[in-house]
Amino acid sequence: MTGRQNVKFIARIHGDGEKVKDIIKYVEEFSEIGEAFDEPVKTYSSGMKARLAFGLSLSFDFDVYLSDEATAVGDEVFKRKAI
């Protein structure tokens, strides 16, 4: 499955229609993996997988977010955005 398909699969658990579209758009923009979003996740580097997973987790409204190494991936701009 592609990054987009994975995000859609999870997003459908939490909503439908516009909510799913909003989550997909948010994760695509937040993860900053470009065209790879539509490529199979099995081709992603570990950093790309972490960005996708971190973006997906932030797309849901929780009271508290616990993060360890997910914020350690990527360049300085991404790290600042993740914090």
Keywords:
83 residues; mainly alpha; 4 helices; 0% strand; Bact_Polysacc_Export_ATP-bd
Describe the overall structure:
The chain is 55% helix and 0% strand. With 83 residues, the chain is mainly alpha-helical. The protein has one domain (3-82). α1 crosses α2 (18-31). The longest helix is centred in the first third of the chain and has 14 residues, at 18-31. It is globular. The N and C termini lie far apart (28 Å). InterPro entries: Bact_Polysacc_Export_ATP-bd, P-loop_NTPase. This is ABC transporter ATP-binding protein.
The pLDDT mean sits at 88
* Radius of gyration of CA atoms, rounded to a whole number: 12 Å
Sheet with the most strands? none
How many domain modules? Answer: 1
How much of the residues is beta strand, in percent?
A: under 5%
Structural class: mainly alpha
Report helical residue fraction.
55-70%
Task: Provide the low-confidence segments as ranges.
Answer: none
Give a quick rundown of the structure.
By secondary structure, the chain is an all-alpha fold.
Mind sketching the topology for me?
Elements: H1 3-14, H2 18-31, H3 46-58, H4 76-82
Helix pairs in contact: 1-2, 2-3
InterPro entries: Bact_Polysacc_Export_ATP-bd (IPR050683), P-loop_NTPase (IPR027417)
Protein name: ABC transporter ATP-binding protein
Organism: Staphylococcus pasteuri_A
